[in-house]
Design a protein that fits this description.
Blueprint (H helix, E strand, L loop, with lengths): L3 E4 L2 E4 L4 E7 L8 E7 L6 E6 L5 E3 L7 E6 L4 E6 L8 E8 L15 E2 L3 E6 L1
Length: about 120
C-alpha cells in the first residue's frame, strides 16, 4: 500500500449518496493540502474538492452544494461525502496530497505530488 489509500466507492442509483475515505500514512497529514480529483477513461482529470491545513474547502462548480470534503486529523483520514449523485459523477476518484498548493481552488488537485490508486464510483440513471 502507498501513503494514500482510497475506499468507499461503489455503484449507486441516481440521487444516491456515497462517502469516500482516504487513509494517509507516511507524511504529516496535518500540514498538507488534501483533495479529490476524478477521471473518466479518455477524458481530462477534474479536480473535485480541496481542503487546506486550515480546513478551508473549495469545490468544482459541478459538485458544489452536493459534495463535502472533510479531514479528520486525529485519524489521518480524508473524506468526500457525495450526495444527490448523478450519472455524470461516474468516474474513478483519487485522493491527492501536496505541501505546495493552497486550497484556493480544486482545479490544481490533479497536479498534486501524491495520489492514491483510486476508487470507482458508478451512478446509474
Amino acid at each position: 500500500q502507498g501513503p494514500l489509500v482510497e475506499s468507499g466507492g461503489g455503484s449507486v442509483q441516481f440521487g444516491g449518496s456515497l462517502t469516500l475515505s482516504c487513509g494517509v500514512s507516511g507524511f504529516d497529514f496535518r500540514r498538507y493540502t488534501m483533495g479529490w480529483f476524478r477521471q473518466v477513461l479518455g477524458k481530462e482529470r477534474e479536480g473535485v474538492a480541496v481542503i487546506g491545513s486550515d480546513e478551508d474547502p473549495a469545490y468544482a462548480g459541478s459538485v458544489k452544494g452536493r459534495f463535502t470534503i472533510t479531514r479528520d486529523k486525529a485519524k489521518n483520514t480524508l473524506y468526500l461525502q457525495m450526495n444527490n449523485l448523478k450519472p455524470d459523477d461516474t468516474a474513478m476518484y483519487y485522493c491527492a496530497a501536496d505541501d505546495y498548493y493552497s486550497s484556493y481552488s480544486a482545479y490544481n488537485v490533479p497536479y498534486f505530488d501524491h495520489r492514491g490508486q483510486g476508487t470507482q464510483v458508478t451512478v446509474a440513471s
